From TrEMBL:
Name of protein: palmitoyl-CoA hydrolase
Entry's family note: Belongs to the palmitoyl-protein thioesterase family.
EC top class named in words: hydrolase
Main location: other
Gene Ontology cellular-component terms listed: lysosome
Matches recorded under InterPro entries: AB_hydrolase_fold
Keyword annotations: Glycoprotein, Hydrolase, Lysosome, Signal
Species whose genome carries this gene: Lymnaea stagnalis (Great pond snail)
Domain of life per record: Eukaryota
Length: 288
């Protein structure tokens, strides 16, 4: 009786010890910083007190305009031990806007333990639009001619240039984009690690894609769902993109595994994604 009881107690205790929480990492957007995710971190703590969380505190404000690979390398350096922890329950990445592309690159380059990647209004398939950021930062350019700046070697020093996706300049994109074209395995100089990138990406179990038509910055807004313009500026969905059809980085496989969860939220402006409780309830809470 008592031996059985203590065995049961031991079992219960060990259950408590090993049933840890996933580590939640929050990656902020362009021209912002870690405090962008204070509210969601607070909601995580209310729902699951003691959940380990990290709000990335690098490349804040104007520093967020630095080349994407430079950012990814340094950010990896600070969270690599979390992303590769083999004794934890894994990681949940919650990434906003440009931060979503930082996370895409981490998923491709690190042998990670990420269970779920929650992408909040991120230009995952690239950006092509006259956003307020573009008007402020590059007042002398418009979306139709800024490729002349971005699709150069020096233009690739700027984060926005790294994922600028001008649908009428496909060949220049492939020749110059050192970041998005490489992640999509579209670059003229083929990435020798493309298969490694895909294997790493497919360590992911779930991809949560949140975006909406009233975002106002991500253009087309469907880029948050991996949609993008074709050369006549018609938005084609993920399933019709070349890199989806040839499964260049694992998206098609993940979709066939049932791992992609897409949500459209009307009425949310770009600056408000991380301030909306319903976004937390729908896109983050079920994956903690
Ligand atoms: C990430 O950081 C770790 C630890 O600093 C390093 O060993 C690894 O090579 C880095 N990986 C990439 C892809 O940068
Ligand atoms: C790895 O996970 C274990 C179990 O959750 C935790 O105790 C440890 O602190 C984690 N290590 C790192 C570097 O996050
Ligand atoms: C892209 O690069 C190739 C190979 O260097 C070159 O032949 C081609 O003209 C370039 N395309 C453009 C639009 O510059
Ligand atoms: C873009 O897609 C639309 C709708 O499928 C199609 O009518 C149009 O021809 C396409 N444009 C190009 C350049 O492929
Ligand atoms: C990337 O593209 C190259 C050239 O087309 C191809 O050989 C390679 O298999 C592709 N990689 C993946 C992961 O599909």
């Amino acid at each position: 009786m008592s031996a059985a009881y203590s065995a049961l107690l031991l079992f219960a205790l060990s259950g408590i010890v090993t049933d840890g929480y996933k580590h939640v990492i929050f990656m902020h957007g362009i021209l912002a910083g870690p405090s962008e995710f204070d509210y969601f971190n607070q909601l995580v703590q209310q729902y699951r007190p003691g959940t380990p969380t990290t709000q990335v505190n690098l490349y804040n404000k104007l520093d967020s305009l630095v080349n994407m690979w430079t950012q990814v390398e340094k950010i990896n350096g600070t969270i690599h031990s979390i992303l590769t922890n083999t004794s934890s329950e894994g990681t949940v990445l919650v990434c906003f806007s440009q931060g979503g592309l930082i996370c895409r690159a981490l998923l491709a380059t690190v042998q990670h333990n990420v269970q779920t990647f929650v992408s909040l209004s991120a230009p995952l398939a690239g950006q092509f639009g006259d956003s307020i950021y573009l008007r402020l930062l590059f007042p002398n350019y418009l979306k139709d001619n800024i490729y002349k700046l971005f699709y150069t070697n020096s233009g690739q020093d700027i984060s926005i240039g790294n994922y600028w996706n001008d649908p009428k300049q496909g060949e220049l994109f492939k020749n110059f984009s050192t970041f998005l074209a490489v992640l999509n395995n579209q670059s003229s100089v083929v990435n020798p690690k493309s298969h490694e990138f895909r294997d790493n990406f497919l360590r992911l179990k779930n991809l949560v894609l949140a975006g909406g038509p009233d975002d106002g910055v991500i253009t087309p807004w469907q880029a948050s769902h991996f949609g993008m313009y074709n050369a006549s500026e018609v938005v084609l969905p993920m399933e019709q993109q070349e890199w989806y059809l040839n499964d260049a980085f694992g998206l098609k496989t993940l979709n066939f595994q049932g791992g992609i969860h897409t949500y459209t939220f009307p009425g949310i402006q770009h600056r408000h994604w991380h301030a909306e409780q319903k976004v937390f309830e729908t896109c983050i809470k079920p994956w903690l």
